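Hey Z.,

So I finally got round to the adenosine-5'-triphosphate thing we talked about over coffee. Here's the setup:
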Amino acid sequence: MKGLHRLPPLLGLGLVAALLVLPFSGNAYLTTFAFTVLIAYILGQSWDWVAGEMGYVNLGHYAFYGIGAYAFAIVLVGGSPFWLAFVAALGVTAVAARLLAVPLFRLHGDYFAFASLALLPLLEVLAYNLTPITRGADGIVLPVAQVLQPAYLIALAVCVVTFVVTLRIHGARFGYALKSIRNDEQVAETVGVRIAPVKRRVLVLSSLFGAAAGALQAWQMSYIDPATVFGLNVALAPIAMVLFAGSGLRYGPLIGVLLLASMQQWLLVSVKGFQATLYGATLLLIGRFMPGGFLRAKWVRRVPGLAEFGREHHEHATASAMQAPGQAGGELPLPTLQVAGERPLIELQGVRMQFGGNVAVNDVSLSIRAGEIVGLIGPNGSGKTTLFNCISRVYTPTAGRVLFDGQDLADLGRDGIARLGVGRTYQIPRPFSDLTVQENIAIPLMFGANPLSPRDALREARAFVDYAELGPRLYDRADALSVQEKKALEFARALACRPRLLLVDEVASGLTPAEVRRFVEHIRHVRDRYGITVIWVEHIFSALEQVVDRVIALEQGVLIADGPLDAVVRNERVLATYLGAAATAPQASAPPLLIRGVA
Ligand SMILES: Nc1ncnc2c1ncn2[C@@H]1O[C@H](COP(=O)(O)OP(=O)(O)OP(=O)(O)O)[C@@H](O)[C@H]1O
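And the result:
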């Protein structure tokens, strides 16, 4: 319904206005309750930047609340004014978060979640035992003063800032870096995203808001001890509130905190004795029947107005992108590279990749000139994909050197190699699943050698989308595409890396003959028009035949042939690899390896 998209911001403004007058109403009970809700929102939303946006479930977020509370209390009790103590709390917590980021981000998934959770008991024990600083189990009593009103107003201001930061993150390059990490951090790196600094920055950012919440609550309560600021029983409540409504949604943390905090308070007052059971049961039911939070439930989608609160990020982005003028059709916005001369663009010198006793790539040396299209063939398991992974640094070769335009790639990370000009696809497509087709392609444009703003990148992405014939799917999520469409999307995303070298891994398998022909035309076009060098892993020889300058064959990681396709398919070793004993039989020696239909 028209105009309903304005409902959330209008209600939000109304809410802020009501909250602004509340502390002047004289109702201390309501003001104290609203204060705890504000603190919970700051904690829940700042947690969601790391969890919902980046996909790292930081169960120890409350540790930043505790560190902030302690730093604030210690400085305030030392005689400093409020603002100095507040700034000290933020500073100490940010330093702690920066240090903790180093060990924590060595871990992924459940390991990260459990390691972060372990911070809470660890810090609680520290707070109990560092008695000279923390006063141990006695806790710290802050100077008693009537601070509810100022603490409340500052908390409200921090809440507004928290929400504005959330909006800013959603549309910024930083936000897209987070979303790409959430989807597939290895792929994010191979399209140019420098993931390590992004992870550190978001943890420090979220810690600052956690610390602000801790400092304000310590100020308002006038007392802290280890159990109240690091206790597991309180630490997970803000996280549960976010999960209740929907992590990763613009309004999820806000609505989750408002509803669950109100329910908690109501249960506390009216259902004495059972409140914890009922609270837990509600969360379990939501988890069971509406995973992803109730705002993502199908029935919410059907309720006009309410649906606005459950919109995924890409739906907000799509709404604004639809108003932006597109740059569709025609040529790709790519530079035209010089391909003249015999200069090698990529050179492998004795590259070896070993997984335990399995040698996947065995001392491979080869050289490919700028502007060549080279087919890479070999039976299943012969090391083709592993060779690609050695070039794009998904794997660090066990031995040997990879030189790109004369530069040793050993010193570069995956993102650096992408920025140097290596784009790739994956045998099993790995798009950023919960982003749209347009966003998938815009990400390399935002993080490549000449990074564009999100707005420009989204606009420029349209040309690549059209090139891949995915125009009608521009605003669809990548996980809604068919396998073939995902392959086309990956090809377009690799081109959006503005590559000098394109690594194409079995893109044609499963395509109809007409689609294979169109794809071959694309490969030829990007080389002829833009000078892009291509290495194409493919089992469909009839496709390779139409476009490659030469072919390299691998067998059990060893390079066994390198030359024109018709010579390679007559090579005895290649024949034996593909046809086994039949190749050595007298009748099989005459005809070359079938070019059409060999798989
Ligand atoms: N991460 C890994 N850990 C252990 N072994 C691996 C790993 N990656 C690849 N291998 C092994 O390396 C060998 C080469 O695999 P690779 O995927 O490179 O072959 P391929 O030629 O691309 O095969 P296909 O045509 O089936 O894709 C296989 O024996 C595979 O099991």
